[in-house]
TrEMBL record:
WD repeats lie at residues 884-908, 1174-1208, 1217-1251. It holds the Pfam family WD40. Residues 345-484 form the NACHT domain. This is NACHT and WD repeat domain containing 1. The keyword Ribonucleoprotein does not apply. The lineage of its organism: Eukaryota, Metazoa, Chordata, Craniata, Vertebrata. Coiled coil: none annotated. Keywords: Repeat, WD repeat. It comes from the Eukaryota. The keyword Repeat applies.
Length: 1348
């Protein structure tokens, strides 16, 4: 059936693979017959491998698992490799009268007493390459004779007849089709020959039918085949695809029209039936999202639960084979028990590599779950379980915090509370304290701490608390020779917290050997067992013993001691293991398979490994050294070869489920390192990395690759590797390509491909940054001398707050928008990569089917500035830098110590309860002093972060920083306060004013130093602080300037440059201010303070709000200069009226204003003061904006509530904001909120259309063309275009990428009552907007978006 296999491989499999990829499935074909001869392998394991592979497919596949192709050959009837002892004795008894048969049977079957129960093993066919054909044929002749004798014996035992007689094919049918009733997940194709031409000779029979050794047709095999087909027709009619085709010269010729139609028919049936079965399987699974989806599949807690279960499962597996170490476990449990009710230190288990630290910690966690009470929480993380990747400390701590919070009923970490590493550390420490205060027990077990990534210098263990609260235990393990252990010894002065994993004793080794062999139903002879114990005794290493046992389980009782190959060390044993694998499978095949598994970033799928080895010419040359490939134009690695190798590696490989797919990787870090040292030398490593990179690039998909095989000249062949698109379907990314491609391009040195295929493509950047894994631009920038790569990398670093806020699941459109807002100004300077990237972003956004804001300028912080590091220190307080340390005290009483070398937090000193007044480092620099407003003075050790002593009431409580001073002499410490020392001389004053003027009478004073200020009268209380800090009110002549009375500032008037002189015109009530720039400012002192002002939309009028009134002015021009005339209208505010905070002037001279108390009023200057009070807000009004045509107005308040009003007639639309602007057509309204977002609303429907995060509150917005121009509180200027399609889908959710609440409410508008002047139908203009009709005649849906 080779022609059918080739047709399926070329036509059917690619179509089904594409269909599966579109559903988020991985399609993998395991055809163990491909590329091999019809004879079995010399070790007789082929049949067992076939049946095991069927079982693996049944366990892993979500759809069809078994595809059968049956032609006209029954196949090879192989003898079983293993025969139970009782059955073998029965066979011997039947051959008692046949000495020659007994001799033959004993020659080929040997008793293995190491099996439990004992078993007879068929001896392998020895292939000698020098003269292999003669010995091989002779051996096969013996096997044929032996098979005949055994078959004759079996005729007397019908119960065991089926055990020997069926072919491998029939056993596969039994296992995959009938044994567990898997017909619903199977497909069956049977080919029949209508008639046999008389001229078809024996040679042509051999191509498609069974023949005997003398070349004649095997009638017995044909009879058995007919029986098998009859059984298939009867039992599997539903899945049977029967074809009748006449062969041409004993084979299928694709060039023949009839045969071509037959092959096309097989492929069409295969594709249609596979799609139907896969679709049905997906429906039964509920069409759940699977591999590759870009949407958020689970909540964060669900991901943490999955991770926790994985580590628990690995821990349980390690505990099954755990024996010994009772002494170490007892010491750990005793230390935890004794420190349960007091504050204590973490426990450290250390030892050499492979000494069993991981198993000890797993057993400890298991014991703690059984010993502690039900409320206890046990968390275990095996940090070396994901090698070669090193876990990030932020991910580890976040995962632990989430698990502990979910188990303890605490609030889990959120992007708002743990957006930075420092905040995560504080949250972690707080969680430990809260669990302790609850009275529950908590055990955190962290294995292989030295495996943490270098980010945040995790190996320095600054994240690990050294002072744990009661009932909270932290146990960590690390290698004794690691940097982490040295840092831990530095942190923990006492040796009582350290426990060493020592060598295995002889008794412990015996128990481990006995337990492991019993689980495998094996044993060893006395000589073999002694050899193992003697070898392990020299090292005492559990990993060494594990490697020996993985080999010893395959020893038979007749294996000579000279062939045992026991290495005296772990490294030597690994070398022996590699050598044994090479002798059995081939050096290139073993080296290639192990090397590719080691080099993969996230492990490899088995299908990927077979594809990659098919691209490796060295592997292919070794495989086809002695036989040519079945189809020279189509060369692939025979899947059977990898299946046999994987069977021998089963003790050293593990499956890792990543993003819904199962990858294979080594289960031991030391073995992975040994493979790298043994096989991946510099040249081999580079070649393997390039092959991996080319595979994930899809370079050889559908293309011919040159191949050089022994006995053939250079030829071009198709390796049949699948394509590697970035997107399988809309919203369905190729996760494997994103995980592996950049990594291999980087490490293989393919810089240009990395720049062009990854860095400068928006598709890679979008998915790479939006998903849970980002592309390795951090590593790229270290090795690539490329400025543009570094700038893109820095831009992604600047985007980290957004990714943290969205928990790593940023919508692609938001990602492109932010990237464009950071890089667009660099287009012209860097056109090659950045220019191309920005063009792709803009092109993608213009085609986006949903509403979108498209940046037209760089308004977010750009990469490439002079800023090198940003320390996330607490706000306020005091700071001092001494040598290589920075000590900062905050307003909330926390003192932080930072290292200036690596820019990392060293200690967080907790103890003060009020703001820090002063900090000082002493002792070069070993200690630190901190003085706080709670009156306490504390001394800290900068070595371990511990408090040394505390002096209460060192200063008055609630002192301010400027009133205290710390001074140290050689033996004394002085604390000065401004109220407790004599006033210094005038010459000691350092803050002097440049000018002073005093009003007459002397009730007010003005001074200038860059700020013009006025003060009102106050009490005569005298303090030195008043002179040092500010010049206060004066009620006496200037001579009392030395000790002036206290006062209060009435008003501060900012100026543009330094004040040079001040003068008062008392009769005119004016303050004249001269600046060094030559400007003279005139301030009227008689007018009330201006609270706010606004110009009309047509800029003809100006409304000014004072403290007691509101005036309307006219804006004109006189002598070509703008002039303000008026006031034209004025109305007084009531005595108890709240100050106006925002207002807007309508074209018809109506004024809409809001107050600091939340009141909203519409005042009509044209109708003599007609007043309409609108629905008030619960907090102060911050924004009032009117549409361009004056039909709508938006009012926003401090509580993030915003309301859109229809002004003709008056009606409420939606609610929250600091600034707003209507679009040119008044169709949309743009709002800037305190939550640092810009929102776009639909005026007609009140629906939210789009949300954009801009990092800073937008305080002013102005309409500009099809978008707006805005300014943020940080001073950035935003210019964006808004694009909205005519039709928006019903499933569109503008806040799907934000942790936000988006609600729709309904309310009735009462048109009757005091608002008759504005709600009358006579004022309604039907040509304006349908919104008015909605607001008048029915309940209006209103929307609110509150960003959490």
């Amino acid at each position: 059936m080779s022609s059918e296999r080739k047709a399926l491989l070329e036509k059917a499999y690619p179509e089904v693979r594409s269909f599966c990829c579109g559903l988020g499935l991985v399609f993998e074909v395991v055809d163990l017959r491909w590329g091999i001869r019809n004879v079995p392998s010399g070790d007789h394991e082929a049949c067992e491998v076939f049946l095991e592979e069927i079982q693996r497919c049944e366990q892993m596949s979500a759809g069809p698992t078994f595809i059968a192709l049956l032609g006209n050959r029954y196949g090879h009837r192989a003898l079983p490799r293993l025969i139970p002892e009782k059955l073998f004795d029965a066979l011997l008894s039947k051959l008692s009268k046949n000495p020659e048969g007994i001799k033959t049977l004993n020659q080929w079957f040997k008793k293995d007493s190491n099996a439990v129960p004992p078993t007879y093993v068929l001896q392998p066919i020895i292939l000698r390459r020098n003269n292999g054909s003669t010995h091989q044929v002779k051996a096969r002749g013996h096997h044929a004779q032996l098979a005949t004798q055994v078959a004759l014996c079996c005729l007397c035992f019908l119960s065991v007849f089926w055990f020997f007689l069926p072919t491998v094919t029939e056993r596969e049918f039994e296992r995959g089709l009938w044994q567990n009733d898997y017909e619903s997940s199977a497909l069956l194709f049977v080919r029949e020959i209508p008639r046999q031409k008389s001229r078809e000779g024996p040679k042509r029979f051999a191509k498609f039918m069974d023949v005997t050794g003398d070349g004649l047709l095997d009638a017995e095999a044909q009879g058995l085949l007919a029986g098998l087909k009859t059984r298939l027709f009867v039992k599997s009619q539903k899945i049977l695809n029967l074809h009748s085709v006449e062969l041409s010269r004993g084979s299928i010729n694709p060039k023949c029209k009839e045969h071509a139609q037959y092959l096309d028919s097989v492929c069409e049936q295969f594709v249609s039936q596979m799609k139907a079965r896969i679709g049905a399987a997906m429906d039964s699974l509920g069409r759940r999202k699977m591999w590759g989806t870009t949407e958020e599949e689970e909540k964060m807690d669900g991901l943490v639960v999955t991770e926790a279960r994985r580590h628990i499962a690995i821990s349980a597996e390690l505990c099954r084979g755990f024996h010994g170490r009772e002494g170490l476990l007892g010491k750990l449990c005793l230390a935890m028990w004794e420190s349960s009710n007091v504050r204590h230190r973490p426990l450290v288990v250390h030892g050499g590599a492979g000494m069993g630290k991981t198993a000890v910690l797993c057993k400890l966690a298991q014991e703690m779950r059984g010993v502690l009470e039900a409320r206890a929480v046990v968390v275990i993380r095996l940090l070396a379980a994901c090698h070669p990747q090193k876990p990030d400390i932020d991910h580890v701590l976040h995962s632990i915090c989430t698990q502990v919070c979910l188990a303890s009923g605490l609030a889990p970490p959120s992007p708002l509370t743990v957006s930075t590493h420092l905040e995560l550390l504080r949250f972690f420490w707080d969680v430990l304290e809260q669990v302790s205060q609850q009275g529950g027990a908590l055990v955190i077990v962290l294995d292989s701490v030295e495996q943490l990534a270098d980010q945040h210098h995790a190996h320095k263990l600054r994240w690990l608390p050294v002072d744990l609260p009661p009932n909270v235990h932290v146990v960590v393990s690390m290698e004794t020779n690691s940097e982490a252990f040295a840092n831990m010894r530095f942190k923990l002065e006492s040796l009582g917290s350290f426990f060493e994993a020592e060598r295995l004793s002889c008794e412990e080794g015996e128990r481990i050997i006995e337990s492991d062999l019993r689980a495998s139903q094996r044993t060893l002879t006395c000589e073999q067992s002694s050899a193992v114990l003697q070898t392990v005794e020299s090292s005492g290493c559990p990993l060494h013993l594990k490697l020996i046992l993985s080999v010893a389980k395959r020893w038979t009782s007749f294996t000579p001691l000279t062939e045992l190959r026991l290495g005296t060390s772990t490294q030597e044993m690994m070398s022996h293991l590699f050598l044994m694998l090479e002798e059995k499978h081939g050096k290139e095949l073993v080296g290639g398979a192990l090397g590719y598994i080691t080099l993969a970033r996230e492990g490899l799928l088995e299908a990927e490994l077979r594809d990659v080895m098919s691209l490796d010419d060295d592997v292919i040359s070794e495989v086809y050294r002695y036989s040519l490939p079945p189809i020279p134009s189509l060369i692939r690695l025979p899947p059977l070869l990898w299946a046999r190798l994987r069977r021998d590696l089963e003790d050293h490989l593990e499956e890792r489920w990543t993003d819904g797919v199962a990858t294979i990787a080594f289960n031991n870090k030391r073995l992975s390192e040994a493979v790298s040292a043994h096989y991946l030398r510099s040249e081999r490593r580079g070649r393997s990395l390039r092959i991996l990179a080319e595979y994930f690039l899809g370079r050889w998909s559908g293309k011919l690759r040159p191949a050089s095989l022994p006995g053939l000249s250079l030829l071009l062949s198709d390796r049949k590797v699948p394509p590697q698109p970035l997107w399988f379907a809309p919203g369905l990314a190729n996760i494997r390509k994103l995980q592996e491609l950049p990594y291999h391009l980087l490490h293989s040195g393919l810089w240009e491909e990395l720049r062009q295929e990854v860095i400068s493509k928006t598709q890679h950047r979008g998915k790479g940054a939006c998903g849970s894994r980002s592309l390795p631009l951090f590593s790229c920038s270290k090795y690539m001398d490329c400025t543009e790569t570094g700038l893109i990398r820095d831009a992604l670093v600047l985007m980290k707050p957004s990714l943290c806020f969205l928990e790593g699941h940023m919508e692609v459109s938001l990602f492109y928008s932010e990237l464009l807002a950071r890089l667009s100004s660099l287009n012209s300077a860097f056109p090659t990569v950045i220019g191309r990237l920005c063009s792709q972003c803009e092109e993608w956004l213009l085609k986006y089917p949903d509403p979108i804001l498209i940046p037209r300028s760089s308004f977010l912080q750009q990469p490439g500035g002079a800023l090198q590091h940003t320390l996330s220190v607490l706000r306020g307080g005091q700071m001092i830098v001494v040598l290589r340390l920075l000590v900062a005290g905050s307003d909330d009483g926390v003192v932080e110590v930072w290292s200036m070398l690596d820019k990392q937090l060293v200690h967080t000193l907790l103890g003060h309860t009020a703001s820090i007044l002063a900090v000082k480092v002493i002792g070069s620099p070993a200690h630190c002093l901190s003085l706080a407003a709670d009156g306490s003075l504390r001394r800290w050790s900068l070595m371990n972060g511990q408090q040394l002593f505390c002096i209460e009431e060192a200063v008055p409580i609630d002192s301010i920083p400027s009133s205290v001073h710390l001074h140290l002499s050689e033996q004394l410490l002085f604390v000065y306060t401004r109220t407790q020392v004599p006033p210094p001389r005038l010459a000691s004053f350092t803050h002097c004013r440049m000018s002073l003027v005093i009003s007459d009478p002397a009730s007010a004073l003005a001074s200038g130093e860059g700020v013009a200020a006025g003060w009102g009268g106050a009490s005569p209380e005298q303090t030195l602080e008043n002179i040092r800090i500010n010049i206060r009110m004066m009620s006496r002549p200037l001579r009392s300037m030395l000790v002036p009375p206290a006062g209060s500032v009435c008003e501060r008037l900012p100026v543009s440059s330094e004040v040079s002189c001040l003068e008062l015109a008392q009769n005119k009530r004016l303050l004249l201010c001269g600046l060094t720039s030559g400007t003279v400012l005139i301030y009227p002192l008689s007018l009330c303070r201006v609270l706010c002002l606004t110009a009309g939309t047509k800029e003809k009028h100006l409304a000014v709000a004072y403290e007691d009134s509101v005036c309307l002015f006219e804006i004109t021009s006189r002598d070509n200069f703008p002039t303000v005339e008026g006031p034209l209208k004025k109305f007084a505010l009531p005595l108890l009226h709240a100050p106006l905070s925002a207002m807007a002037l309508l074209p018809d001279r109506r004024l809409l204003y809001g107050t600091s108390c939340g009141e909203v009023t519409l005042w009509d200057f044209g109708r003599g003061g007609d007043v309409s009070d609108l629905e008030p807000h619960r907090s102060g009004v911050t924004c009032v904006t009117v549409s361009n045509r004056g039909a709508h107005a938006l009012v926003g308040s401090e509580d993030t509530v915003q309301r859109l009003w229809a002004l003709n007639p008056l009606g409420f639309l939606f609610e929250g904001v600091l600034s707003a602007a209507f679009s040119e057509t008044d169709r949309f309204i743009f709002t800037g909120s305190q939550d640092r977002t810009i929102k776009v609303w639909d005026v007609a429907s009140g629906n939210l259309l789009f949300v954009q995060y801009v990092y800073s509150p937008v305080v002013r917005m102005v309409t500009f063309r099809d978008g707006f121009v805005a300014i943020t509180r940080q001073g950035a200027i935003i210019r964006e275009l808004f694009r909205c399609p005519d039709h928006i889908g019903p499933d569109y959710n503008p806040v799907r990428s934000f942790r936000a609440q988006y609600r729709v409410t309904s309310r009735e508008k009462d048109r009757e009552g005091p608002q008759t002047s504005v709600s009358n139908l006579q004022d309604f203009n039907p040509t304006q907007l349908n919104l008015n009709l909605v607001g008048m005649f029915k309940a209006k849906p209103s929307s609110a978006c509150v960003m959490l």
